Amino acid sequence: GKMGYAMAKAACRRGAKVVLISGPTSLDSPRGVEVVRVRTAKEMEEAVLQYFAAASIIIKAAAVSDYKPVEVLEQKMKKGDKNLMLELCGTPDILKRLGGIKGGRILVGFAAETENVVENAETKLKEKNLDLIVTNDVSMPDSGFGTDTNRVTLIFRDGRREPLPLMSKDELADVILDKVIGIKR
Ligand code: C5P
Fold this sequence. Notes:
Mean pLDDT: 95
Number of strands: 11
Distance between the termini: 28 Å
Radius of gyration: 17 Å
Low-confidence stretches: none
Bound molecules: cytidine-5'-monophosphate
Order of helices and strands: HEEHEEEHEHEEEEEH
Number of helices: 5
Helix content: 25-40%
Strand content: 15-25%
Strand order of the largest sheet: 3-6-7-9-10
Largest sheet: 5 strands, mixed
């Protein structure tokens, strides 16, 4: 979404060769960035793995759906008069997979939380073998999905926590890149 596009634009402005792997969105493709459009988590996983070997920094801002329907119908489903149960199964955790094969690459994740924000994000940083996780409380009105601003806490691999003030997603993208550059591999 907006945060991923802001990251891609900021990195491109700094002269990085950027590949933006994007799920469905109405945002315009940033100029100077190679955009790969995908629809499902599986397609995103395949695209990410394809570009992974050549990448030195991977920033995963995509809000990937954690579940998908087990069954997908060809035709419109007719309504019945009973309650409807949908069976969902998990999607691949792309970032976790990358964490297992990261080598010398820098991996940055995002975590959208509504409770125990910092603690949950720290667990994710460890589970997914990240260098940095950008954490926000999505229950706040000025932070998270669809907004142009974000209020986040950065959490580093060495345990350092850095709460940042409210700022635009464009400004935040630059702050994140400054921090990424400072990470020792
Ligand atoms: O576990 P959770 O979904 O909260 O973790 C968020 C981070 O993991 C984000 O960086 C997101 O892009 C990534 N993720 C992923 N594949 C998924 C779910 C999340 O890469 N299926």
